[in-house]
Structures are given as structure tokens and as C-alpha cells.
Amino acid sequence: MTPDLQGQHVERDGVPVMRIDLHVHTEASHDCRTPIQAFPAWCLAHNLRVLAVTDHDQHWGGVALQQHVRDLGLDDQLWIIAGEEITTREGELIGLFLQERIPPNLTPEDTVREIKAQGGLVMLQHGFDPLKRYRLRPEATARIADDVDIVETFNARLSRPQYNRDAATWAQARHLPECGGSDAHTLQDVGEGWSEAPLQPVRTPEELLAALRAGQVHGSWTPPVWAFVRKQWRNLWSSASGRGRQTPE
Ligand SMILES: [Zn+2]
């Protein structure tokens, strides 16, 4: 299969726009099998131009995808952010624009310090869903609130849409940029939560923050039971037909 590696041209009210998904897992995560090589064709086909790779306690997935995109000559169409979904002692946090891996099991405060020391951004993801076992604990969220740079106000995997609204209320009270995230663990889930923004390169934290502030959060929420059944089906399908094959929707 030769993937169509040409970005789409999508306009809204005459302005070219792109999608941004800041919460995606790859084969570098223990619970995900999506091959790095599968992303560029999928992203371009869905006008996803900015993608943050946020593997569980791993950083190499994002670096490998950046390299792959460069090798394909797509680095002027597809901007990959190397991130990490970091397990702290009190739940998870995401670091974006990281230079190297941050180890798990630090305190939330030390994790934030490590992210900032690398020039990275702190993103609070699925922070308001009490059924998310690994969400950052409310006490910890309160302690690091001043250091949060971005709030994920649409996560496609929450147990109830209300928890996304709670995140949006929290972000808006602090005037923080919001983003959508798919929390994708299969290729087909990539892009189910996104921000739409005017098309522009995003290579630095400042450019990302500006794009988010100019953008709008979107997403399609999936009831958890259906998401679970679908994930099992997609995993079965990809084992039966070879890793990374795209399944029909
Ligand atoms: Zn995640």
C-alpha cells in the first residue's frame, strides 16, 4: 500500500485550518501497539498537522516519529511534539517539548520542575474524571495549578462528558489555553479529540500556545463500554491482518 502523503487543504470561513491532537500513544507505550510508521499517512489524511506523542513513561516514541517524518520529507506539513505521559506519585501529568525522558514516581512538583527545566510545557490531562485511576489527584492539581500551561478539556476517553466540562471550567477560570486529546491507543482513535486552529507551523512551545489560543476544542466522545469493545475488535483485526493495517471505520 502506498500511502497518500499529501496534506489536505481544509478551510473554514476562507481560512486554511489544521487539527491538533496533543495526547497520542504509540508502540513505545506498554499498552499500545500502533507502529511509529503508521502515523504520517493517517495524520495527513485527517488534516492532523500537530501531534503530541505522549507515551506512558517513555519519550523515544515522539523522537522516533519526528525522525520518521523528517525522513519522509514531511516536516513542513506535519509537526510532531515529543512528549511523555508521566506517572507521578499522585497520578499522571503530561510533559510536552521534552528533550529527554523524565522518570516516573517523582512527586508532582518534581515532575513539573523536570518538565520546565527542559523548556517543556505542563499539560493537565483527564484531570477531572474520578473514574480515571491515574488522574492527578485533586490535592496535587491544586498544588501545581500555577505551573499548568495547557488543560486538556476534551479527552475522548472520559467516563462522562461532564468531566470535560469541569476541566474547561477550571481552565477558563485560570485563562489557560485548552486543547483536545484523543488519548488514542489504536491508530483509528488518533484524532478523536482535537483542537482546530489556523494552519501554521508549530515547532516551539510559544507557537503551540498561540495556535491553541487561536483555536477551538472539538471531539467525539465515546461511551467507555463501546470504546472498550471497539478497542478489542481493532486489536483483533490488527493481529489478524498484520501490525498497523488500517481497519475500516
Ligand atoms: Zn494517555
TrEMBL record:
<dbReference type="Pfam" id="PF13263">
    <property type="entry name" value="PHP_C"/>
</dbReference>
<dbReference type="Pfam" id="PF02811">
    <property type="entry name" value="PHP"/>
</dbReference>
<feature type="domain" description="Polymerase/histidinol phosphatase N-terminal">
    <location>
        <begin position="20"/>
        <end position="90"/>
    </location>
</feature>
<dbReference type="InterPro" id="IPR016195">
    <property type="entry name" value="Pol/histidinol_Pase-like"/>
</dbReference>
<dbReference type="GO" id="GO:0035312">
    <property type="term" value="F:5'-3' DNA exonuclease activity"/>
</dbReference>
<dbReference type="InterPro" id="IPR052018">
    <property type="entry name" value="PHP_domain"/>
</dbReference>
<dbReference type="InterPro" id="IPR003141">
    <property type="entry name" value="Pol/His_phosphatase_N"/>
</dbReference>
<protein>
    <submittedName>
        <fullName>PHP domain protein</fullName>
    </submittedName>
</protein>
<dbReference type="GO" id="GO:0004534">
    <property type="term" value="F:5'-3' RNA exonuclease activity"/>
</dbReference>
<dbReference type="InterPro" id="IPR004013">
    <property type="entry name" value="PHP_dom"/>
</dbReference>
